Amino acid sequence: MIDATTIGSLEAQLRATLFYLAEGERLAHTGSWAFDAAGFKHWSSELFVIHGLDPAGNAPSIPEYMALVHPEDREFVAQAIEKMLVDHHGFDFTKRIVRPDGTIRHVRCVGVPAAHGEGEGFVGTGIDVTEQEQLTAALRKSELELRQILDLAPQIIGVLGPRRERLYANRVALAYYGVTLEEWLQRSFGPEVHPDDFDRVKTLVDRSVANPAAYELEMRLRRGDGSYRWFLVRYNPLRDAQGQLIRWYLACTDIDDRKRIEDRMRNETIALREDLDRASMFEEIVGSSPVLKRVLAQVVKVAQTDSTVLILGETGTGKELLARAVHKRSRRASAAFIGVNCAAIPPSLVASELFGHEKGAFTGAVQRRLGRFEAADGGTIFLDEIGELPPEAQVSLLRVLQEREIERVGSSHPIAVDVRVLAATNRDLEAAVERGTFREDLFYRLNVFPIRLPPLRERAQDIPILVEYLVDRFAKQTGKVIRNIEKQTLQRLTAYDWPGNVRELQNVIERAVVLSEGETFVIDESWLARKQRKPSNGTAVTTLADGEKALIEAALQETHGRVAGPRGAAAKLGIPRQTLEWKIRNLNIDKLAFQRPR
Question: Which of 212, 321, 380, 588 is the most exposed place for a label (fewest CB within 10 A)?
Answer without folding.
Answer: 588
